[in-house]
Amino acid sequence: MRCIDVHSHFIPLEFIEAARRDPSRLGVRVVQDASGSDALVHDQGYSYPVPPRFYDLEARRADMRVAGLDSAVLSVSPTLFYYWAEAELAAEVARLCNDAAAALVRQDPEHFWALATVPLQDVSLAVRELERAVGRLGLHGVEIGSILPQASLSDPRLDPFWRLVSELDLPVLVHPYYVGTRRGMERFYLTNLVGNPFETTLSLADAACGGLLERFPGLKLIFVHAGGAVPYILGRLDHGHRVRPETRAAIVHPPSRYVRQVYFDTITHFGPALQYLVDTFGSDRVLLGSDYPFDMADPDPVGTVSRLRASPEQLAAVSGGNALRLIKSC
User: Fold this and answer.
1) What is the pLDDT of residues 93-121, one digit of tens each?
2) How many distinct structural domains can be found in the chain?
3) Cα separations in angstroms, 95 against 118, 141, 175, 181, 327
4) Which residue among 59, 81, 129, 157 sits deepest, i.e. has the most Cβ atoms within 10 Å of its Cβ?
5) Measured between alpha carbons, how far is 267 from 283 in angstroms, rounded to an integer?
6) Angle at CA of residue 288, ends 138 and 50, nearest 5°
7) pLDDT interval class at 297 (50, 70, 90)
8) Average of pLDDT values for 123-142?
């Protein structure tokens, strides 16, 4: 049984060095934390340490061996999406991150794949960068933010991007995005604890109700944090479709039909919730994820999957089979 982590972040060393050289332009400073390690401090107020496991494959492989992971799909930290910036700066950061991702995969293609990042605030630049990242660099999919400053995922203005994703048959990791705090969630780290799954909930509900999955039924969308609250309010969405005209404005079928077209990672931090996810949507729709190397990561993702009440075939699918199917087909 091969264990593949589909939710595994990195930050390029090249970005850290660029931030040292020009912090004002990039809107982020490199400082020393209490332990003497590098940390990034964004102008919006968010800060976090960046030890070598963010960019050093040997350190990452050592942690993977301890966790029982065979492979990982690398995706840049969402703090580097740069959706807040001018499009040209965001495109520059995306190119740097994608070049670095491709270089990491070339070092060890047996154990690593990587997803591109694109400047989605400018659809034409996003399409151009995705074509380069996949066609020239050989990256294996794309990671995007779950909510954009100017548009939701179902906004028709993004259709050229979705059309290319569909044509290339790429997996898309949909991840919450922020570099500061969210209003009303400033205390107790609620920006992450509540804000991240809330943003995933809103994004997936929009994709289902807004017609995205009707216009592009073949999309391979992977919603992290187990789909937020959507799996648990699915009946409410369908009820809304029956009784409210707003919910029927862009779709023909109940929202649950479209939600069942997407994929979820395993990050719930609560076994019964993960069991419900697998029982409700099927083992072919759930993929092992850790959120490594952030502190909100599942420290034992392989153990989390192994504790599911499921057949050996189902466990193999969640552990790595589904990831192989999605990535190898692109």
Assistant:
1) 999 999 999 999 999 999 999 999 999 99
2) 1
3) 8, 15, 19, 27, 21
4) 81
5) 14
6) 70
7) very high
8) 97
CA distance 265 to 71: 15
User: What's the pLDDT at 136?
Assistant: 97
**Residues sharing a CB contact under 8 Å with residue 247, sequence separation 6 or more, in sequence order:** 209, 237, 240, 241, 255
| CA pair distance 48, 68, nearest whole angstrom | 26
Q: Is residue 26 part of a domain?
A: no
Q: Determine what percent of the chain is predicted with pLDDT higher than 70.
A: 99
Q: What is the rounded end-to-end Cα distance, in angstroms, of the chain?
A: 22
**Residue 42 belongs to some domain of the structure:** no
CB 29 within 8 A of CB 40: yes
CATH number at residue 290: 3.20.20.140
User: What mean pLDDT value characterizes the chain?
Assistant: 94
Token pair 């009440």 in the structure block, residue? 309
